[in-house]
């Protein structure tokens, strides 16, 4: 057994607080055209699982409240298969099966935290669907694993011998992140970020779009997929090359200007995931992705190319300091982590640049779809850029796809389509005049007049925690009052190691943070002899509130 990595701890906590959320389920669909053998692909999947220990991990409970993990030596790999060639409604049946594949919960105590499904859609047309829990994978891992599977498949189908790429195990990676060398790097990166982010505004609000957030971010989400034509992306590449910028920096600059116009904020903090591995772990499968907060200042009177330059510098600086875990930054910046949203950024911009694994068999082609919607989201607004090489194994001229994921607590579908349309309009204006002041481009792309905020709890239904007591910040009604020596007060003092805490002390303002919540709940359970939802602490963070809320639950 070995501990969770810093990235895994965040995923595990979110899953505990909102077990019904599927924000941390990730699905890739590989589509095959040509002669395909499902028996061989099953064997290749099973063999690859045996080679990659992350896909044999399960969670193990501990008394501390935070689990450890262990690698199961041998597991049975099941690949369900469905023949839809004679179905009355093949497309409808496929969507039904895909929805079940994506949304069915994983038992975190049972390996593998991955599942596979084969769909036979027509003669010579198959799909392999792989759904993973984020505890054991990141986007780069998906491609590494599928590449290993398809390399073995090609070798077996051609009568050759598959020699897998040697790589350290995920357990070795976690051990490496606990080394003195790595922890010294983390400390240096945290200090750099703390200076870089001093005085920043950490949320981006869209007053003319969306709705008013309810108290507890609940990960309910929608998705909109946008295709940027190949001709447009050719222009973007040409302008980026002429300016000495990357395509990603160019797209990030345009996204930043779009958010500036709709938020009215000239300074933004935008999250960016990074899945770079230490050199020796480049081919290791597992959860290694982290996220960093990019701080960008936008002068609407400055040339757009200047903003692209600033974006590129920010990205490269972030890569140089990517070892800092979010929870360490939250602590260093003294940011409250109350609630389930990220306290450092609520919008994200990312590029998935790991290419679709090629199939090295004449007469068989493959393409890939990733980020299949699970009806959940990790942020208010998140955009993932998919280059053509990610979608097509032949790296054909297919343009880019942008996946817009959004919180349905914050936005409706029409809001996100407005943003996506505005993004393409701004992008076209930028490539036509990259030296023009960024704020003057595409003047029609502007925030609408502010509208009345709708109440999200009325529109979508109150969060489950609201059934227990009123909203966070309002003490639940109680007839008997709360004893000064309540069990929750004792738990607060024990976990925070402070004797000066009283019944009206806010856990998060007193130094608590998200990953201490499971320890707090576990200690309370030891004192009270009964379980309580982890989410309760995020909704009610004072001992007085928690005592009344748990009493109300016990009295149901």
TrEMBL record:
InterPro entries recorded: ACP-like_sf, CAT-like_dom_sf, Condensation_dom
Molecular function (Gene Ontology), one example: phosphopantetheine binding
GO CC annotation, single: cytoplasm
All residue ranges annotated as the Condensation domain in the record: 2-441
Disordered, as annotated region: 447-483
Protein's GO biological process: amino acid activation for nonribosomal peptide biosynthetic process; lipid biosynthetic process; secondary metabolite biosynthetic process
Protein name: Predicted protein
């Amino acid at each position: 057994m070995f501990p969770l990595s810093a990235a895994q701890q965040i995923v595990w906590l979110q899953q505990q607080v909102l077990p019904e959320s599927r924000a941390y389920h990730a699905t890739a669909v590989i589509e095959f055209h040509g002669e395909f053998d499902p028996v061989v692909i099953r064997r290749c999947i099973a063999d690859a699982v045996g080679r990659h220990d992350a896909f044999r991990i399960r969670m193990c409970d501990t008394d501390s409240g935070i689990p450890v993990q262990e690698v199961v030596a041998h597991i049975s790999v099941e690949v369900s298969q469905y023949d839809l060639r004679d179905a009355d409604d093949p497309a409808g049946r496929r969507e039904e099966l895909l929805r079940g594949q994506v949304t069915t919960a994983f038992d975190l105590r049972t390996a593998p935290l991955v599942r596979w499904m084969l769909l036979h859609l027509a003669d010579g047309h198959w799909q392999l669907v792989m759904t993973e829990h984020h505890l054991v994978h990141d986007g780069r891992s998906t491609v590494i694993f599928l590449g290993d599977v398809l390399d073995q498949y090609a070798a077996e189908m051609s009568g050759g011998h598959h020699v897998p790429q040697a790589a350290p195990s995920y357990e070795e990676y976690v051990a490496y992140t606990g080394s003195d060398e790595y922890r010294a790097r983390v400390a240096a990166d945290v200090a750099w970020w703390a200076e870089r982010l001093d005085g920043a505004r950490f949320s981006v609000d869209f007053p003319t779009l969306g709705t008013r957030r309810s108290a507890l971010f609940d990960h309910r989400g929608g998705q909109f997929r946008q295709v940027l034509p190949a001709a447009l992306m050719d222009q973007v590449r040409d302008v980026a090359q002429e300016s000495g910028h990357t395509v990603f920096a160019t797209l990030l600059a345009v996204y930043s200007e779009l958010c500036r116009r709709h938020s009215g904020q000239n300074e933004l903090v935008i999250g960016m995931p990074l899945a770079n591995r230490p050199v020796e772990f480049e081919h290791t499968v597992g959860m290694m992705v982290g996220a960093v907060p990019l701080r960008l200042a936008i002068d609407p009177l400055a040339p757009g190319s200047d903003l692209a330059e600033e974006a590129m510098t920010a990205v490269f600086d972030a890569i140089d300091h990517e070892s800092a875990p979010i929870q360490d930054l939250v602590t260093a910046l003294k940011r409250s982590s109350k609630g389930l949203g990220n306290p450092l950024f609520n919008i994200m911009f990312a590029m998935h640049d790991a290419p679709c694994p090629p199939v090295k068999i004449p007469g068989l082609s493959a393409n890939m779809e990733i980020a299949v919607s699970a009806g959940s989201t990790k942020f208010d607004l998140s955009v993932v850029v998919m280059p053509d090489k990610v979608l097509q194994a032949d790296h054909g001229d297919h343009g880019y796809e942008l996946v817009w994921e959004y919180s349905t607590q914050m936005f409706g579908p029409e809001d996100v389509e407005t943003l996506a349309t505005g993004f393409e309009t701004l992008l076209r204006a930028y490539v036509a005049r990259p030296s023009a002041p960024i704020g003057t481009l595409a003047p029609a792309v502007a925030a609408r007049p502010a509208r009345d905020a709708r109440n999200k709890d009325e529109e979508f239904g109150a969060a489950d925690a609201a059934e227990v007591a009123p909203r966070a910040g309002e003490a639940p009604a109680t007839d008997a009052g709360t004893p000064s020596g309540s069990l929750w007060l004792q738990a607060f003092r024990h976990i925070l190691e402070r004797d000066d805490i009283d019944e009206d002390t806010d856990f998060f303002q007193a130094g608590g943070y998200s990953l201490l919540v499971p320890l707090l709940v576990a200690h309370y359970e030891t004192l009270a002899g009964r379980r309580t939802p982890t989410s309760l602490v995020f909704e009610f963070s004072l001992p007085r509130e928690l005592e009344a809320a748990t009493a109300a639950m016990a009295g149901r």
